[in-house]
Amino acid sequence: MKKIGYILILCLITNALNAQKESADVNAGNKLYKSKKYTDAEIAYRKGLLKNQKSFEANYNLGNALFKQKKYPEALEQYKNSLALQPTDKDKIAAAFHNTGNALFADKKYDESIKAYKMALKNKPKDDETRYNLAYAQAMLKKQQQEKNKDKKDQKKDQKKDDKQKQDQKQDQKQDQKPKDQQQKQQQQQPQMSKQNAQQILDALMQDEKNTQEKAKKQQARGVKKAEKDW
């Protein structure tokens, strides 16, 4: 199957992994895997690893069984374990890197999956399935980067909008505050009357009133003159 997306291509090593030296558990796991009983296959492979932890086949095939159950991080760990055993067979190395790429791709780690596919092709250059997966991963990485750039641009636009709103609010607050400030300044600019000045003005008013009262008394004392006419 050549499509990668809903179903990723797994390279299950069969004949090479079913050598006479393999334990019965690994062979049983292979049969269960072919029957699509992936959970049962996982159990069988794990039993095989208990007997031989350095088995490339048990580690690798366990990774495949885990991958089919969508346990991608666990599958990736098993593929790494199989590669750490440093197999000499280039087909095995290519298959392990190919499926490592698949596990990374399923986890949307496209950049890392591309590196794994390239390593697979380095060991098996004519593998069309790996070449297809590599091209698809590169296309998905480009799309992912474009989406990230778009999100960043949208965030910048939102930030600019928020900054403008804050600036407008500050401007409005300044305009509302301005008349109050002017009123306060005008009040401050008005001359303030000291207590001494106030007392002087009061004294002057009292003296004025006193003088007026004295004039009125003098006028009353003189009386009203009557004009007498001679006939």
Question: Gyration radius, to the nearest Å?
Answer: 50 Å
Sheet with the most strands? none
Q: Report the uncertain regions.
A: 1-7, 14-20, 223-231
Strand elements, count = 0
Reading off the top of the CATH hierarchy, the class of one domain is best stated as Mainly Alpha
Helix coverage percent of residues?
A: over 70%
Percentage beta strand: under 5%
How are helices and strands ordered from N to C?
A: HHHHHHHH
- The CATH architecture designation of one domain is Alpha Horseshoe
Globally, the shape reads rod-shaped
| Structural class assignment | mainly alpha
Write a short abstract of this structure.
The protein has helices at residues 24-34, 38-51, 56-68, 72-84, 90-106, 110-123, 128-189, 195-222. It is an all-alpha fold.
Show the helix and strand layout.
Layout: H1 24-34, H2 38-51, H3 56-68, H4 72-84, H5 90-106, H6 110-123, H7 128-189, H8 195-222
Helix pairs in contact: 1-2, 1-3, 2-3, 3-4, 4-5, 5-6, 6-7
Give a written overview of the molecule.
With 231 residues, the protein is mostly helical. Among the domains are: 25-70, no CATH class; 87-145, Serine Threonine Protein Phosphatase 5, Tetratricopeptide repeat. The protein has eight helices and no strands. The chain starts with 23 loop residues before the first helix and ends in a 9-residue tail after the last helix. The model is unreliable at 1-7, 14-20 and 223-231 (pLDDT under 50).
